């Protein structure tokens, strides 16, 4: 299995998260504040410099009021 970091599917995943954040009118700083994390945390995962674990992903989707199952389902194909 090839590495997923920076793969086309990973890029689609990140694009969805960025798009959903922006659709909610949130900056990276505002999202980071909601998560109790520094702004660099958001910048690094959005820029594919770091991976998200499942718990982080669920916290992010909760903070942007997004359905994690929809996001994951869209990545299956």
UniProtKB/TrEMBL annotation:
SUPFAM superfamilies for this protein: lambda repressor-like DNA-binding domains (SSF47413)
Residue stretches making up the HTH cro/C1-type domain: 17-71
Matches recorded under SMART domains: HTH_XRE
InterPro entries per the UniProt record, alphabetical: Cro/C1-type_HTH, Lambda_DNA-bd_dom_sf
PROSITE patterns with a match to the protein in the record: HTH_CROC1
Domain of life: Bacteria
Name of this chain's protein: Helix-turn-helix domain-containing protein
């Amino acid at each position: 299995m090839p590495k997923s970091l920076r793969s086309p599917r990973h890029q689609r995943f990140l694009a969805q998260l960025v798009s959903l954040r922006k659709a909610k009118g949130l900056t990276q700083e505002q999202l980071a504040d909601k998560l109790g994390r520094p702004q660099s945390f958001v910048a690094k995962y959005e820029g594919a410099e770091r991976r998200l674990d499942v718990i982080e992903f669920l916290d992010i989707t909760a903070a942007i009021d997004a359905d994690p199952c929809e996001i994951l389902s869209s990545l299956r194909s």
